[in-house]
Amino acid sequence: MKILKSSEIVAEVRKRLKEILSEVPGIHVPEHESISSKHGQPSDLGYDLKVRVEQDGDKEQWLCVEVKTQGQPQKAHNAISQLKRDAETHDRLNERYPIFAAPYISPAAAKICLDADVGFLDLSGNCHLAFGGVYIHVEGKPNQYKPKREHGSLFSTKASRVLRPLLYGPLRPWKVVDLEREAGVSLGTVSTVRGELLKQAWAEDTEHGLRITKPDAVLDAWVKEDRWSKRTTVREYSLLIQDQDEIAAKLHRLVESQTHAFTQWYGALLRRPYTVNQITTLYVSAFPEEHLIEGELLGRRVDSGGSLRLVVPKDDGVFLGKQTFNGIPIVSDLQLYLDLIDAGMRGDEAAKELRTWSEFYGGWHE
Hints:
The chain is of the alpha+beta class and 366 residues long. It has helices at residues 6-22, 73-90, 107-115, 152-155, 157-167, 176-183, 187-199, 215-225, 228-231, 244-254, 264-271, 290-297, 333-340, 347-355; strands at 27-28, 34-36, 49-55, 59-67, 96-102, 119-122, 127-131, 134-138, 203-206, 209-212, 232-239, 260-263, 280-284, 299-302, 308-313, 323-325, 328-330.
């Protein structure tokens, strides 16, 4: 997808705005009545774009547009502040209608505009224009300028380590140096995560450190980026033993010398019972010898359909926040949710039950 320059976005916004208004009865946009101030020809106005609109009855309205290259919540807040400053400096408030424009404006950013009585328009087809007798509202159009991984820098293997302590409830501020130590990553990685969270308006920067304010939005975005198959190597086994508690106990003893933790259905069954599934899934640092599985669990390796899944993660971050139940190690609630939500076999039901629980990952909501 082509990345547009700021001047190109302004030109496209002007064109799109005129196209939309041309379909409204009683509205006329003079052919040459638009001004670019920060891009194109200079002007003493602060706006990126200002368009004069004539309505029936000789009523005149100026549409004043602040254009950004991105349409995340932080950009919307910045644009609204800029529009307010420009209006106070250059215009009488009752003669102008403020609009935020970008290639794509996220739903969260759109809501910020609506709450501030500011219009919005993007090049992907979404818009809200409400002035005089005009009311046009379009939402739900997909992002036509979306990069391959919209939040790749936030949910990469190393970056996701930073999110784990930040998301643990009750939510609290974290200093950068404390996050570096807790997550075991570089200060650069922590800084990248911090910047992305603030850009999306999912966190706030307080005097005591960075604090997540919208944990649900972070987790929903994480799920969209997460790929089980890319972050794990899995071996499946068919077992003669059927009792999951017996299987878990034997596995726990078998791999007790290495880092390990149960996840997916069995982990959720121990943590927050909801669905029953006979598959036992265990994260291990390294696969045990095949003869040990055969001897201890009466099992044999299969290509698929096994009742035991041994999983070696590509990154040990899955073990952060590990918990225990009657001496059996389980991954954190956060990791359980990520591992279950797209696992099939009613895994999504177990995941949603876990997430709606008041004690999920330490508790997010009072």
